[in-house]
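Lecture notes, unit on protein representations.

Consider one protein chain, 195 amino acids long.
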Amino acid sequence: MFRILIVLLFALFSLQCLGSDIEVDRRDCLHGQSKKLRGLACHLVALKEFNDRNNKSEYLKYLGMACNEDYSKSCFALGLEYKVGKIVTQDYNTAKKYLGKACDLGIAKACIKMSFLYDKNPKQREIYEEKACNLGIGLACHVTALEYQRKELDEKELNNNTKQALKYRKKALMFFKKACNLKVNDACKELKKLK
């Protein structure tokens, strides 16, 4: 009986602490001393609202607040929510807004998602592939290298522009090297062929 009482008291204490934690985070979200603290606190409130309370509107609200404080994980999560459309209406433009910000804040996976959203716009797609490469995604480096290699061949064969083709070749080599350094074996093989 004594053990049951101890367990119940511990559970009650834990619930009380959890409730106060969300209030502390909520306060820090609104009035934290730094942008970083406000962003993290808002993100934590969002997660607690979703996981503990299943309150999707508060979850989205606090993700948005955290993203406004440049908390990259919240921008990424919000972008995914709008891309997938399970708890909000699917909206690719809004997804691009948040995923683009997450990419700019250094989330490589957000850059990859952005490249997929711009599948029909090669210039925009390439911008995000390059950003993903620069953030350490080897396959993005490889894809970017292949794009520059294709452009090199197009300039040589279609436009007979060897000067521009040489620029594209240098870029292709640079991205093949990056991809190879990031352990993409096919890029290493291609690099050996081109040297």
